[in-house]
C-alpha cells in the first residue's frame, strides 16, 4: 500500500499537535521520543491536504500562543498570565475572522501555510515545525506580538481606571443618598451641573460638597470639581447630557457612568442639549475667526 510518512518535531504545544493529527481519519500517528517532542504521521496520498491543513491550523493557533509566551519569558524573565490571556484573546479573534494579522485574515494565512506545507506531505519527510514557523510566520508573530502588547497595555489602563472608580464608589457609598435629581452637561470646554428645574448649583453648594469629599483642592480641574460635587450631593438620580461623545478615553462621561451606575441616565437629546451644541459650535466658529484676525 502506497503511504506517505511525515516526521515532525515541535517544542510548542506538542500534545495539541499529536491530538489533532490522531483525530484525522485514515492517518496513523506514531509518537517518537517524547523528550524530543517528535511524531511520525503515516497516511495515504489523498490525505496529504488534510494533514497539511491540520498542521497549518496548529501553527496558527497553539504554536503562535506558545511562541508569544516564550518570547515574553525570555524578555521579562518570568511568565505573565495576563499577557498569555491577552495573546489568547487576540488569537481567538484572529481565528474567528474578526481581525487580521500582517494584513491578512486567518483563512488567508491558513491557505498559505497549507500550500507551503503540502510538499512535505507528498513523500517521506522530516520537518522541524519550530524552524518552519519562525521563518514562514515571522510576520504573523510580529503582528501578534504588537497586538498582544497593545491589548495588554490597554487592559492595564483599564485596570488602573477601574481602581480609581472603585475608590470613588467607596467615598460615594459613605454619603447619604439625597432625594434629588441633578443634570450634568459636559462639553469639550466645560462641565455644568443643574438641578431638575434647570438652576445651576451655587458656589456655596459646590464649596460644601468639596469640603465633604476632597481634603486637598490643589491641582483639580473642572471635571474633578464636578465629580466631587456630585459625590457630595449623592443624588438619587443623575441625568448625563454628553455633548462631548468623542472625548478621549477614559472620558468624564465614562467615569460618571461607572461611578453612579444604575443611578445614572443618559439624555438622548433634549432641547437644552441641542441649544448648547449650537452655542458651542457658534463659539468655536467665532473663536477661530477672531484668532485668524489676530494672526494677520
Automatic annotation (TrEMBL):
<dbReference type="Pfam" id="PF08812">
    <property type="entry name" value="YtxC"/>
</dbReference>
<protein>
    <submittedName>
        <fullName>YtxC-like family protein</fullName>
    </submittedName>
</protein>
<dbReference type="InterPro" id="IPR014199">
    <property type="entry name" value="Spore_YtxC"/>
</dbReference>
